[in-house]
Design a protein that fits this description.
With about 140 residues, the protein is an alpha+beta fold. Helix content is about 25%, strand content about 40%. It has one domain (about 1-135): Gcn5-related N-acetyltransferase (GNAT) (Aminopeptidase, 3-Layer(aba) Sandwich), CATH 3.40.630.30.
C-alpha cells in the first residue's frame, strides 16, 4: 500500500462518495489517498482549516480495513500537525471502529446528542499536538 499525494480533488471526491453524509463535497481541502493494487482503498480529507486558530478537520473513508497500518496512520497525522495544533473529526456514535482509533491516539471526545439524526449522536474527536506527540504512532 502506498499513500497518494497530489490528487486532492480525486481523493476528496472518492471520500465524499464513500461517506454516508458528504454528498455536497468538502470545498477547499487537501487530501491523501491510500492505494493498493492501483486503486484507492482509503482516503483522508483535511478541510475546514482555520489558520488563525491552527485547527483543521479530517474526514476519512475506507473500503478495506487493512489500510490502517501504523506507518500509514503516522503519515496521515504527521501532515496536519506540521501546521496545526489541533485536529478534529466528526463521526456517528455508532461508528465504534473510528472511535477506537481516535482513543488509541489519546483524543478527547465531545458527544452531541441528536446531531446526526433523531436519537443518533455525533462524536467530535479532538486531538491536540501534545496528545499526538505522546501517542505510540508519533515518530518524533
Amino acid at each position: 500500500m502506498n499513500v497518494l499525494y497530489g490528487q486532492n480533488e480525486a481523493v476528496a471526491d472518492w471520500v465524499a462518495v464513500n461517506m454516508d453524509d458528504v454528498s455536497r463535497g468538502f470545498g477547499e481541502c487537501a487530501a491523501l489517498g491510500v492505494v493498493s493494487h492501483g486503486r484507492i482503498i482509503a482516503g483522508a480529507v483535511y478541510h475546514n482549516w482555520s489558520p488563525e486558530t491552527e485547527v483543521i478537520e479530517i474526514s476519512c473513508a475506507a473500503i478495506d480495513p487493512r489500510w490502517a497500518t501504523r506507518s500509514i496512520l503516522t503519515e496521515l497525522f504527521e501532515y496536519p500537525f506540521r501546521f496545526c495544533r489541533l485536529v478534529t473529526s466528526r463521526f456517528s456514535e455508532e461508528n465504534t471502529r473510528v472511535e477506537k482509533l481516535w482513543q488509541a491516539f489519546g483524543a478527547d471526545f465531545i458527544r452531541l446528542p441528536d446531531m446526526r439524526a433523531e436519537g443518533e449522536a455525533e462524536i467530535v474527536a479532538l486531538l491536540k499536538l501534545s496528545q499526538w506527540k505522546e501517542s505510540r504512532l508519533y515518530n518524533g
